[in-house]
């Protein structure tokens, strides 16, 4: 059963999405799409040949970012997202492909429409802040 934000207005996005299993499904679909969809080829190329580490790190990060267990910070400390991503050229194309891929993954993993809209806005703010090139 999917929890509705209107049923429980004080739940975290982590609870709203359905906990760790649902976050894991979202992350897995996100990286699967990145591998499968030609529209995300540029984004995929930026991730190197092996996505195992990226999948695990995004899962850990999203759990905490959504208000659940702080798996990432317990292992690595503060995420320092911008600093950790500085070695990679992140421009408008990378931002937009990341956002489109995540939105598609949210749709395909049946993230509640209201939560999906809320997350899209938050993801955009973060992804835009991560840009380090104007291309």
Summarize the structure.
Helices cover 64% and strands 0% of the residues. The protein contains 8 helices and no strands.
Question: What labels describe this entry?
Answer:
135 residues; mainly alpha; Globin-like; 8 helices; 64% helix
Q: Helical percent range?
A: 55-70%
CATH-scheme architecture: Orthogonal Bundle
**CATH level 1 name:** Mainly Alpha
Q: Shape, please?
A: globular
Low-confidence stretches: none
Mean pLDDT: 90
The tally of strands reads 0
Structural class: mainly alpha
The CATH superfamily is: Globins
Distance between the termini: 43 Å
Query: Order of helices and strands, N to C?
Result: HHHHHHHH
Mind explaining what this structure looks like?
By secondary structure, the chain is mainly alpha-helical. The chain has one domain: Globins (Globin-like). The protein contains eight helices and no strands. Helix 2 crosses helix 4. The longest helix is centred in the last third of the chain and has 18 residues. The chain starts with 12 loop residues before the first helix and ends in a 5-residue tail after the last helix. The model has no long low-confidence stretch (mean pLDDT 90).
Topology (elements, then pairings):
Elements: H1 13-17, H2 20-36, H3 41-45, H4 52-65, H5 71-76, H6 81-85, H7 92-108, H8 113-130
Helix pairs in contact: 2-4, 2-7, 7-8
């Amino acid at each position: 059963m999917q929890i509705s934000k209107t049923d429980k207005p004080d739940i975290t996005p982590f609870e709203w999405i359905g906990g760790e299993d649902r976050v894991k499904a979202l992350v897995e679909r996100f990286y699967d799409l990145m591998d499968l969809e030609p529209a995300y080829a540029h984004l995929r190329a930026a991730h190197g040949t092996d996505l195992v580490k990226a999948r695990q790190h995004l899962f850990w990060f999203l759990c905490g970012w959504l208000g659940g267990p702080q798996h990432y910070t317990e292992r690595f400390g503060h995420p320092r997202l911008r600093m950790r991503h500085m070695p990679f050229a992140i421009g408008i194309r990378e931002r937009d492909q990341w956002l489109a891929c995540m939105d598609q993954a949210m749709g395909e993993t049946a993230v509640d429409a209201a939560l999906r809209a809320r997350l899209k806005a938050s993801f955009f703010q973060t992804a835009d802040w991560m840009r380090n090139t104007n291309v």
